[in-house]
Amino acid sequence: MALVNLLRAGERASAADAAEPGARGAQSARDERDEHVAALIEVRHAGKHYEARGGAQAFSALEDVSLEVGQREFVSILGPSGCGKSTLLRMIAGLAPCDTGSICVGGRRVSEPGEDIGVVFQTSNMLPWLTVGANIRLGAKLRKLPRAQVEARLPALLDTLGLAQFVDRYPHELSGGMRQRAAIGQILLLEPRVMLMDEPFGALDALTRDRLNVELLRIWQQSTLTVLLVTHSIHEAVFLSDRVLVMSARPGHVQHDVKIDLPRPRQPDQTRSDPRYGRYVTELSKMMGVF
Ligand SMILES: Nc1ncnc2c1ncn2[C@@H]1O[C@H](COP(=O)(O)OP(=O)(O)OP(=O)(O)O)[C@@H](O)[C@H]1O
Ligand SMILES: [Mg+2]
């Protein structure tokens, strides 16, 4: 399967897995995943305040946020609107500085956007005058990645994302789901260690969202990616994650850290019929104050 080409050279589970991906390859990747070597993302007592306009008092968006995400983990963040989830992702991505505390990725303090981290936003940032193929290549071009390397990886990636037939189309000719897949492709082409996702499927219908959830899990499962996802959907968080972090209202901090002990690989019908799935959804709903 083309997906296996997404694995970083030298980091493949084994030659056998590469030759025979599927249940065994996924299981092997899973086994490796369980050996979380060390935290890849470390947020320590981070805080952020914003100056208010017109002389009003500055306010705290985030206060004393601490969290860790292990290598190859899939972690989701839930929290009320305005609690600082996007701010936190921007800080981890190096797009905004923290005012207090520290953030390290891969043991190095984050001070600016780095090559290890890719960000997928709620709406894709595709340039309307470029084709889908050119948009997906754009990040690699800006980063001056060797063209041969990019072109070698592209067909498998397009195949994985179901976009092979659409490389020469323009963004306005795609559905919302396809545009989000293209945005994810743009990031995956850069082979980041960490993919930060800020409500990437929030604007999509339930069916498309389900399908993209499954695709995202397949990509993650067979690669070495670490994913930190912000979502408003408790169901999405439970279905996808190893752990779900629940943030408090503003100033946001991490209130709960819930381990999701459901077997992988996950499939919507099987996973959702597991009684533990319902219990996690109920538990998280209570934490979120839904009921
Ligand atoms: N650049 C900025 N300047 C001033 N205030 C900001 C800025 N960015 C965010 N804020 C404020 O910080 C707080 C947190 O915003 P943030 O976008 O991080 O919340 P969020 O949890 O992502 O919300 P949502 O779930 O609605 O996306 C909000 O009160 C917001 O108004
Ligand atoms: Mg947000």
What's the main sheet like?
6 strands, mixed
* Cα end-to-end separation: 43 Å
What percent of the residues sit in helical stretches (DSSP H or I)? 25-40%
What is the averaged pLDDT score? Answer: 86
The total beta strand count reads 10
Q: Indicate the structural class.
A: alpha/beta
Order of helices and strands: HHEEEHEEEHHHEHEHEEHH
Shape: globular
User: Strand content of the residues, in percent?
Assistant: 15-25%
Could you tell me which ligands this complex binds, including any ions or cofactors? Answer: adenosine-5'-triphosphate, magnesium ion
What are the SSEs and their pairings?
Elements (H helix, E strand, L loop, with lengths): L14 H5 L3 H12 L4 E12 L8 E12 L3 E5 L6 H8 L7 E6 L2 E2 L7 E4 L11 H11 L4 H14 L15 H13 L5 E5 L7 H16 L4 E5 L3 H7 L2 E5 L6 E6 L8 H6 L1 H13 L4
Parallel strand pairs: 3-8, 3-9, 6-7, 7-8
Antiparallel strand pairs: 1-2, 1-4, 4-5, 9-10
The chain binds adenosine-5'-triphosphate and magnesium ion.
Model description:
This protein has 291 residues and is of the alpha/beta class. Mean pLDDT is 86; it is low at 1-37. The strands form 2 sheets. A 6-stranded mixed sheet has the order 6-7-8-3-9-10, with helices on both faces. Strands 2-1-4-5 form a 4-stranded antiparallel sheet, with helices on one face. The radius of gyration is 19 Å and the shape is globular. It has helices at residues 15-19, 23-34, 85-92, 132-142, 147-160, 176-188, 206-221, 234-240, 268-273, 275-287, and strands at residues 39-50, 59-70, 74-78, 100-105, 108-109, 117-120, 194-198, 226-230, 243-247, 254-259. The protein has 10 helices and 10 strands. The protein starts with 14 loop residues before the first helix and ends with a helix. Helix 4 runs parallel beside helix 6 and helix 8 crosses helix 10 (275-287). The structure holds adenosine-5'-triphosphate (ATP) and magnesium ion. Magnesium ion binds at residues 85-86, 198. Residues 50, 61, 79, 81-87, 250 line the site of adenosine-5'-triphosphate (ATP).
